[in-house]
Amino acid sequence: MSSEKSAGCVYLVGAGPGDPGLMTVRGMELLERADCVVYDALIPLQILSRCREDCELVDAGKRGGKHTLAQEKINALLVQKAGECRCVVRLKGGDPFVFGRGGEEALFLRKAGVPFEVVPGVSSALAGPAYVGIPVTHRSLASQLTFVTGHEMEGKSAATVKLDALAAAAGTKVVLMGIENLREMMGRLMESGQAPQTPVAVIQWATTARQRCVRGTVATIADAVETATIGSPAVVVIGDVVNLAEELDWRKHLPLAGRRIVVTRSRGQEGRLSQLLREKGAEVVSLPMLRIVPPADRQAFAKAVVNARHHDWLVFSSPNGVQRFFDAFFAVYEDLRELGGVRIAALGSGTAAELSKRGLMVDVVPQEAVAEKLIEEFDRKEDDFGGLAHCTMLWVHAQQARRLIFDELTKREAIVEECIAYDVEPADSPLAGRLLAQGSDFITFTSSSTVRYFTKMGLSLPENCRVVSMGPVTSKALRDAGLRVDIEAKLHTIESMVEAICCTEEK
């Protein structure tokens, strides 16, 4: 499609059922480059936090039966924004074409001559049951699957969901948006011939840390839901497959299932920690505190990289330093062997792993990513390389790094040259306050920089939230800032931090 009326394209993107990890790669890619995002009410803030800092966010959600924007105004807004922006994302919960009015919006865009693309999402109709161990189909129990909406479009002259036909349908029935009319629907299903003992599950806030599931039968589920105070959003599953949840509920065995954990790191650098926490069952909220930017003196950095091969040692203080150094290195040299016979030291296993990605072995690396431990490791291995006296060393680090490495290596008569590879500055996180206000069970701090910028932004810890520190340096920064430390990792590593959180949950 093409149009002279519009310079931009509208992307109808499904955000998935709630867990940001279930959003498609294509959807996330568009979200990260969008100029404007028009989003629905149930979109998690942690998904919106992936938007560019200058992206315009427009709330078009429906809450308590009331629309922030009427559908007609949303349609007009999409056309307007397509004329102003190159990339407009219409972000909808679940899948845009499953009870989400995505089809209506696509038709409106088509008639207006606006280019659009549909990016399907994982529907809660499938993900909700899966996250409590209910397969909506099973060769022995259900070879048919029916999706229905729990409420009809306002203004319809007659209901299109025929409950007598639904009651007679074989297999599994999944009802979306049916919690408000649950008692009436179950009663009408039984009147239409549905067996009262048919198993039913109701899953609230599916795939998130707030997920709750109540099981019963068609005859009892309304009372069970009322007793448990289950409300919207919820998915209703009717059928024999519900009984499989007892055996197949895989999430209940994960140590951090139902826990919400805030990760404060630099923008784009939270991946490994978030990955490990999600694997343990946690819902992860990414809260960027800082961004990585080029050093103030780019010429000095470039010169240091070019001359790196003339040193005896390269000392890297962080994974970021490794990435920036080699980006600059390969802009000049084509072959890693241009480094010559230089020895390499790394501050911690994370930095060593980043070097390993480039095929480089590390000669000196402490177990803990603490400057004092690196110096101790140099002293312990001194005989292996004949001491440091008169060795030329290039120390690759951030603009505001602690001076301990430079000072201690100089004391050992090494000739140390600095290579400032990057600087950090506060990230503009307009959603930070709202994310924290939603509450969490843990908040993690992986460096003194994240602590510094957390306090600079004037943020407050969520109520009853436990503070997790990467190690003693970060803990000192927290206490100096007037914040408590509830959990400290035994080793200065991501893995140790995750282990410490899991151990706390096991007690």
Relevant terms:
507 residues; alpha/beta; Cobalt-precorrin-4 Transmethylase, domain 1; Methyltransferase, Cobalt-precorrin-4 Transmethylase, Domain 2; Rossmann fold; 4 domains; five-stranded parallel β-sheet; five-stranded mixed β-sheet; 20 helices; 34% helix; elongated
What features would you describe in this structure?
This protein folds into four domains: 114 residues, Tetrapyrrole methylase, N-terminal domain (Cobalt-precorrin-4 Transmethylase, domain 1); 126 residues, Methyltransferase, Cobalt-precorrin-4 Transmethylase, Domain 2; 110 residues, Rossmann fold, CATH 3.40.50.10090; 134 residues, Rossmann fold (3-Layer(aba) Sandwich), CATH 3.40.50. Helix content is 34%, strand content 21%. It has 20 helices and 22 strands. A five-stranded parallel beta sheet has the order 3-2-6-1-7, with helices on both faces. The chain has a five-stranded mixed beta sheet with strand order 8-9-12-10-11, sandwiched between helices. β16, α12 and β17 form a beta-alpha-beta unit. It starts with 8 loop residues before the first strand and ends with a helix.
